[in-house]
Batch of 2 targets.
Target 1
Amino acid sequence: MAKALGEAPEPGVDRQWTRNLGRGRVAGPRLPQQHVLEEAGPSTASVHAGTYTDPVTRAVGTPIFQTTTFGFTPESYAAFEQGHIRDVPIYGRYGSPNQWAVQEKIAALEQAESALVTSSGMAAITTAILALTNRGGHVVSSRDVYGGTFNFLREDLYQLGREVTFTSPTDIAEIRAAIRHNTQILFFETLTNPLLKAIPLVELAALAREHNLLLVIDNTFLSPICLRPLDFGAHLVVHSCTKYLNGHSDVTAGAVAGPRKYVDRVWNQMLKFGGSLDALPCFLLERGLKTLGLRMRAHTENAGRIAEFLAAHDRIRRVHHPSLPDYPYPWLREYCPDGWGGMVSFELDGDDEDALKFLSRLTIPLVATSLGGVESLVSLPFNTSHSFLTVQQRREVGIEPGLVRFSVGVEDADDLIADLDRALTS
């Protein structure tokens, strides 16, 4: 990536830097003891891909390698000499069997050549963006991205010598108009928080190809069970594994997946930032991933039933969910024929004070931040994720008073619907 390591391209320069990492790379990293699946369905990959089979005990699950360092071998010295230290056990920050096991599973699910786990979703996002841009570069992103991402792009990129332009996530003409001679990355989310706006992914990929840009997609809200952005032309996909990939609200982690030539650059940046993931959360994340297919089916089915119930309720002004006829982004249904995850947002026939009272009457969903766990969680954007915006600014992005964000869990849908009905009518 010659130009990405130097200054940003000048006007009129042919920018082929997205294709300049031409050295051949093997998939992985992998150990010989890991289970590698060449072709498998998503649930099979969730269960089996990447599992480390201990050669002594034949344990069916990956053991926890709770160590910071590994004894040197001839392979270790050769890795230092030949520049492939990501592929052998040397030091916990560089890589470990637990990291490699869960990375292989995520790569298999995304059908990617390589994956990297990090200490949080924000670590994955910030490390990927900084690894794939350089001083003088420019990023095009969305006004609707996750608050932590938005604040990083708005407050920190400038300090690091990059620029950013925020656009509508759904207006391809506005996105095209934002591209400059020094643009290097398009960064968008497949579904936005909290209104579930769907990006025109195919058109974004075509735009990236046309201008030789990298398309980096945050796929946290959908997971690879519902959508694999790499299949549609994205160069890298990132996740907050804290959410659906782990699914049990007990791990903070992130992931990056894609061609190894890009993931290696992100890994090299991570070594300097220190955002590696320790053995125990890797073990928990790998365990959580084994049920990802089952959980996503339950989340999707429950969310669809709840969206249908809410859309027919006289106390609800509007429901935001891809299953409904008035959903304004129908292309998502073409991208994701098997479902859209467990997120539902809806507007009460009232204001934010009414929404607070509604939350106090719920008995099953927990009033808490985050999403994607087996338990249902509910929150109000006005006093959590979008509290830093004024009422007018929230309305400009479509967040009206009384908006509720519901992360639908895997409980019995009848129980959730009955609880919602009681809270709405009492």
Note: Confidence is low (pLDDT under 50) at residues 1-14.
Target 2
Amino acid sequence: MLGTLKLDRFRGFDVYELTNLTRINLLVGKNNCGKTSILEAIHLLVSGSDPLVLARLANRKGVVNDTDAALGQGWEPDISHFFSGHRVAPGAGFRLSSGDGNGRYGQVSVMVEQATLKDRVQSPVFDDDSNQVLPLVLRIAPQIKGRMFDNLPDIPITEDGTLLIPTGVRFRRPWSEILPVRPSVRFVAPDSLDPDHTRTMWDRVLMEGRESEVIEALQILDADLESIHFLTSAGSGGRSGRAGVLLGFRGSGRRAPFGSYGDGMRRLLALSISLIRTANGFLLVDGIDTGLHWTIMEDMWRLVVEAARKSSVQVFATTHSYDCIRGLASLVRSRPEFARDVSIQKIGALDRAVSLDAEQILVAVDQDIEVR
């Protein structure tokens, strides 16, 4: 697990640090304070800053450039917004680091540099007959268990921040050698329940015989629910993450479509399956309480802590809700054995987050102290 996290010149942060991280870390703070950016930083760090992760994070937010006219590539990820000032230029860069106890994740540096003639000649992006000039490259240097990997392939990048990732096994191999056994990482956004990914994760649940845990999670909203079924016929998934899923209930001979239930059921399904799927890894949840009523917050947190313990998952989640915080306090009051597993990290204008342990969370809630 990560014990600390430090960001240097990443997105809107100049220098920022989180300390006293626990198994379950709830990030709170005002809009645009950087909560989601911290989730992204964790994803990049534990992946060794795999450039494909960088691209996926940009694509997830729809931050792309149309390179079709200039390069014939089509829509490509724009990574300029990961850099301070939202621009790329020689010397721009950021560094992410962690004190995780065993140095497994260490740090990663990402720098923009002027491309050399060698970079331009070897770049797989442009044909030999092309008159295009590649001005910049992205250089990534992870440090894992004290070893610095500073000879990874340079990645072409245009002046507007368009990342042009070469394809092929030859390019991907170096990152595989850095982290041959990569930790499982899943980023759960408020609207993320992709039907194909959900089915793949459900297969993992079935193989491990843990479907009862998912059913128990959904019973938080409906105690009569007793089964969940994913249809296997072609096209049953449709375009919706709710299509092709049926729920069975006690005393009912007919199974109900998952789509007939609200966002709360959808969120609990995503949480419970993701906690199993990311065993020995990291679950990053943006808006963990989305779609959930305040009356079930304690049950939701119990589900998260118990599953995270069982699967050895470290959870980082964001919220704007004081009800979500009250639910966490209520859990540690009723289940004091969970106290060492939880913390709140308040993200603000200082150079480090304010860390609250379980005892401080209880005091804040009892005295109605604003911690968001």
Note: The chain has three domains: 11-47+278-372, 48-178, 193-262.
